[in-house]
């Protein structure tokens, strides 16, 4: 459950993320963010590395840490997003488990077991080569921020290396999963 930092925790036994988005995008109430949170919760993240590509407020990165990920990296083009992510990670007591980078500063050869990109269709298309390159063989990729009418087009940018399943449709987006068909890349995709 994601909560504004000024509220009390209503469910102490749940995975709670205290959040103040500041100037960054991502409060957890947007349907596409909720889909990504649900998807992350469905995975076994124990011992895995997760990249939150377009981390905004850091909600998905922080949730991944709280769901057991061993290492989490947030990447965003907006320095304000990195500040908000760092502040929210501190607020949640997980700042030492979150690495944050501008794209030009991220480590070379960076790959992860799980990558989540809750950004818009345009960047998902334009950055498809970069995003696919972040997922290690056998890993999974979640893409969100895609309208139902855009899902097929975005999926086409990933089909050269992944088989796509556009399986769950919502009025505000589409959830899809994919596995890569190449030996170098074996990934899953969620878009919505």
From TrEMBL:
Q: Does the keyword Transferase apply?
A: yes
* Entry keyword S-adenosyl-L-methionine: yes
Recite the UniProt keywords alphabetically.
Cytoplasm, Methyltransferase, Ribonucleoprotein, Ribosomal protein, S-adenosyl-L-methionine, Transferase
What is the organism field in this record?
Vibrio variabilis
A Gene Ontology cellular component where this protein is annotated is: ribosome
Q: Which Pfam families match?
A: PrmA (PF06325)
State what protein this is by name.
Answer: Ribosomal protein L11 methyltransferase
Q: Which domain of life is it from?
A: Bacteria
Q: What CDD domains would the database entry show? A: AdoMet_MTases
């Amino acid at each position: 459950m994601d909560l504004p930092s000024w509220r009390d925790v209503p469910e102490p036994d749940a995975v709670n993320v205290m959040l103040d988005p500041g100037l960054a995008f991502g409060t957890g109430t947007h349907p596409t963010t909720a889909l990504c949170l649900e998807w992350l919760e469905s995975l076994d993240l124990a011992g895995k590395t997760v990249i939150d590509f377009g981390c905004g407020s850091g909600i998905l990165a922080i949730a991944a840490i709280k769901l057991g990920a061993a290492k989490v990296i947030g990447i965003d083009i907006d320095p304000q997003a990195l500040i908000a992510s760092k502040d929210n990670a501190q607020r949640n007591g997980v700042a030492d488990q979150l690495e944050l980078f501008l794209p030009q500063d991220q480590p070379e050869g960076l790959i992860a077991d799980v990558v989540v990109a809750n950004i818009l269709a345009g960047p998902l298309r334009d950055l498809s080569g970069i995003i696919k390159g972040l997922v290690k063989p056998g890993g999974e990729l979640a893409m969100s921020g895609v309208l139902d009418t855009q899902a097929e087009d975005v999926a086409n940018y990933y089909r050269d290396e992944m088989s796509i399943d556009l399986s769950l449709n919502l009025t505000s987006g589409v959830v899809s999963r994919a596995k890569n068909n190449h030996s170098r890349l074996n990934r899953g995709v969620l878009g919505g």
